[in-house]
Fold each of these.
Amino acid sequence: MRNRLLMAGVSLALSYPTFADDIGSLKQQLDNLKQDYEQRVQTLENRLKKAEDTTQSKPINNQAENSFNPAISLILDGRYTSFSNDPDGYKLPGFMLDGEAGLGEEGFSLGHTELAASANIDDKFYGKATLAIHEHDGSTEVELEEAFIQTIGLGNGINVKAGRFFSAMGYLNEQHEHAWDFADAPLIYRGLFGNQLRDDGLQISYLAPTDTFLQFGVEALKGSSSEIGAWTAFANIGGDIGVEHSWLLGLSHWQADDIERTSGGHSHGDEHEEHEEHDEENHEDHEEHEEEHHMEAEHDEHHMGTPSFSGENKIIALDFVYKWAPNGNPKYRNFKFQFEYFKRTEDGTLTLLDSDPLEATSYDGDQSGWYAQAVYQFIPQWRTGLRYDQLNSGNSGFDVELLEEAGLSGEDHTPRRYSLMLEWLPSEFSRIRLQFNRDESYTDTDNQVFLQYTYSLGSHGSHQF
Amino acid sequence: MFKKFSLLLLVLVATPIQADIRIFACEPEWAELARALGGEQIYTATTNQQDPHHIQARPSLIAKARRADLLICTGAELEIGWLPLLLRKSGNPKIQAGQPGYFMATDYVILLDKPTQLDRSQGDVHSSGNPHVHLDPERMLQVAENLSKTLIQIDPSNQSTYQAKLESFSQEWQAMMQRLDKQIFTGKSMVVYHNSWLYLQQWLGLKQSATLEPKPGIPPTSSHLSRVLATLQQSPANMIVYAKYQDGKAAKWLTQKTNIPIVALDFSPATEESLIHWFERTVNQIAAILK
């Protein structure tokens, strides 16, 4: 036993040197391998570096505002509305309502479905067109809401826009309906522009090279003339106060020496008592007169004519916007205050088209109004807002009765409206809004409820301040 | 009117003002990178308390963009809600897409998480991939090299300065990368608010076990949070991470339920904080939790 152990020990001791030799050669091999790999890595690195050096000035990726060209977006807008008064009886004393300026349909209806395509056309121009599709008196209408081209990077802060566009008058005017904070336009927008002022023309603006935002611009617009029918001039100033507050102040002026405006027909009150008196003589050929009031409206329009103004028209506007967000991070909480004031003075002739004999009067228009609104996003996805509207008018003319018929007599009533809204925004692309209005546009107070959805599909638009 | 205006135009074109290059940086990380590489007049559009996805095209930003010689942003649709408007309104040819003064960092690196399916039911996805590349030090080096070239292209008279700055930045940056001990992060997992930390996770070897947002850009919902909670009770994560500009409520709730440590990180450098300092600080904050 002992001998065996000893022998094993001796043989182990004898074999040890060969064992050590093996390790040595392994080490050698490993070193060779390491050197080989290091060399290879080095050459690879050199090759990579070479490749990088030749390509580095070129971007690997190339991204633009849109992966598609052009960027397409579709706005879906639907609503359920309820009015305590008949919406067809809507009027705004002292203001001639035109275009789409009515209250819209009661019950379920679609708002503006907007289809827009936009893109940088080349390195010098950007273009955008928006089609608005909407229902009007039971038929679907397609309207070219805007179609313009705009320069990009012309230099020295100058921008030129041409085509059909929303005028830079005021603050809200340039924003699309889907970007508004309330379901309907401020009363003054409804009264002066039939919700929004847009025209065909040319806009040139200049941005001053200052730390404070300072912008001036002019617009030449078609108006109602074959040449340049209207002009606007606007100036904006804005900036930040610290990180959390920002503001924008604007002053604008619109002028047309010879403008023609015709009421859209929704406007003048069909249940108007003065009208009834005038109507007496027409009664015999309209037996169905009393049956339905909208029949009566048609009847009124037909026989009383549509009021139309022609003459000189000036509007001045003042707008102010203030925004706040904690740390300047508006995602979770933010606040916005907005105020606009408009004043229009007109001097010209008021005619009742289709009246026989043609009735006309001299007319001096003086219409003004303002609104103030505050919107607060109190928690993520939820916003609430308050708005107050007020209008004033002091129109005068030779034929006071005609003014009354045209709805331009103020009727000793100050149109007012109180609005309250609550919004839920599940994502950046969707919004559901509940709005309540106490509308004192005319003497009968109307309680209005809107339940509205607005969805945006397609390219990710960027919204103005 | 037109005459006056064209006269004004002429006067402006005829008198260019030559000064040091003005840099407009969309986020603080690009401002700090530009500063490290030799940029001097730098305006930063956002702070690290603000979510760069949701900035408004404020008048002040338009005014700054008007005068910039170089625009440095992340790109990859991160600023899509506001940058296109700034560019159009600025009337500044130097910073328009395709010009040397238009520098999008994500244009120079390969992006991860490029969606194969573009559908908004998946949330506010970025079609070109995850844009938050500034959290990957390797990619930052690539961006730095390209930005330095851009600076030279715009301001060739200071070429040697920019080259020297790049050299010293790269050295310091690489030294920082060496200094950081990545071993303790390997295999550890984190719950995040938004998929903002992807590149950092990749570099450190961290795993992401859940996001508090049910879909990108959609704030946490209670049903989603309870699902996350259930997952975490099955297999707990090592930490819950959110950026300081993000809403911390959901993260805090989850911490209370699970006792998983929570950390709020600066997604970008603080005011006047260097890029290296910020990055090292951020990684060390995560390391401190794991120790």
Note: The CA atoms of residues 59 and 86 of chain B lie 9 Å apart.
Amino acid sequence: MSKQLDYLDELEAEAIYILREVAGQFERPALLFSGGKDSITLVHLAEKAFRPGRFPFPLVHIDTGHNFEETISYRDDLIARIGEKLIVGYVQDSIDQGKVVEQKGKNASRNALQTVTLLDTIAKYEFDACIGGARRDEEKARAKERIFSVRDEFGQWDPKRQRPELWDIYNGKIAKGENVRVFPISNWTELDVWNYIKRENIALPSIYFAHERDCITRNGQLMAASPFLNMDEEDIVTKSTVRFRTVGDISCTAAVLSSADNLDAIIEEISSSKISERGARIDDKVSEAAMEDRKKGGYF
Amino acid sequence: MDILKFFTAGSVDDGKSTLIGRMLYDTDSILADQLEALERSNRKNDDGTIDLAILTDGLRAEREQGITIDVAYKYFHTDKRKFIIADTPGHIQYTRNMVTGASNANLAIILIDARNGVVEQTVRHSYLVSLLGIEEVVVCVNKMDMVGYSETVFSAIVEKYKALADKVKLKHVSYIPVSALKGDNVVTPSENMVWYSGTTLLNHLELVDVQQDKTKVNARFPVQWVIRPQTDDLHDYRGYAGRLQTGVVSVGDSIQVLPSGQQSSIVRIEFFGADLQQAIAGQSVVLHLKDDLDISRGDVLVAYENAPIPSKEIEADLCWMDSRALDTSLTYFLQHNSKITRCKINEIMYSVDINTLEKHAADSFKLNDIGRIVLKTADELAADSYDENRSNGAAILIDPRTNITVGALMFRTIL
């Protein structure tokens, strides 16, 4: 038997270890589930960490209301299969309560609004730890984030006040009102996640695979034509064969032209790709420090 | 394919960020949209090429000041290995960040500016590498282009460093002359230094045998979580979930539960419903024992032979990481594996001037101070010395007033 773990085994073992630390250190943790491949991978890892027992946390979905239909049906099927609890926080509720105001104009998106709904959901259920699927290879600000990342009662990330994180000892001590965001797959790259999904045979929402879809081009990006986009006569709808590399709010997630309709083809495409995953996220394009600013405000 | 975690010690002036940027760039690990963002950012080298250092500067404050404040993690891979780089700042005021980055590394790259040779900070970085128990060291003599790619300059620095390596007790040291700026010997062999017959830095990183085979060390399994479904069909199921830190465990092995000292044996090793005959260091599994014992989070299952003797008193090296100084009258929390207990620092034996390695008497530690202390805990710890077992010989101190991690502990003698 090999005395050295393969890199995917090592990443998997580390993520399971982190999930169990969450279970052991917190009273009311939650797993933030977006329906994207990273949070789907987290659910798979949680099954490996806690079966045959139940998850020591519910899944929490912050629903902008502007979803890809495929994501919601995938989510409901998944919940039925694993038999775990799902809590949904609706951005629409935050809008109805007057806590946030819907953006106006052509590029309006609910992406920014979901931070408020997330913080309200955390407060309502008194979650002290929220597990998320962010990875350090996604973006420069994330490259500096801890695996246990403490947020104050306003949900803020303060890069200058980050705790030193040594060895694999994770300090989960917090004051009342604070919470910790936990990122078990911090050390995975996009390619690692895909290779793992393939190895583990994890099912994904169909929008990750190439399909025909009505799209429009906006700011150089290909967007799914949808009633949630403020479309006008300048937007010309064309049928394209596309897939999505990330799954976010439909109004801020761009598609890529692709014929990759299976995992091997996707892995091949990513291996030779020259555009980063977050390159297809409109929300990162605002400025060079866009992610840093959103994280400080409580964004995941 | 396995994973190599390494960290780089050096300051901005030594070209540390440029070296990392060069590795990423020359291994084709930078994507087009990231390059485009770089080209937009208006920071160029004198000859108009992209300043690769920008690749590793994450936060706005860092970009504004042109320095690295925090640990940034970078990832790339070749056909042979996946690499995780902890990019840490080199200035003395960021010693704690370097300790943090080094704590998870198997290999350290120490950068020396060929024009300056072994300087004060080289001593400091080498000491920290030794303190953190990193066995593999690569000394990169950088900016060789600035000294005419001179073999004499390189050899003189190597000789000088060897004396330092002996002094701080580094075991495996390799030396590579490079120019991160021009790319010599980083990923591609240099045509400017034909006198150098060794490998490039990347090639070395791909092939180096990391001498820390954790399976050769005694088995240590801290219990993180007890799985007890308590359903009708799994009424008596009781599995201990954790990650095997070191060693190998097999079905049938005798074990001890520490600190209680109860004995039992492993009847089943489970992973996601499958039964394994054996688990090796690094694997997260579920263990089942022959006897029904009272075991919970914070306990550690250990190999029957060479078990640590639980103790409340430990001599340790302490690196202080908080702006508020160590208060020997205060009770801190100590976190060791999955166990948290109360802890006092009973004695400060000495502090180390990490630039000169001289020991001094001290009555407190300020931010970035390092030295030897004796601590006392409320509960017994089943710990090893850090030299024997890097996982089970390390702990952190937490300030109960702020919950911040304020100290890194490396156990030297279990008293």
Note: Chain A touches chain B through 61 residues (CB under 8 Å).
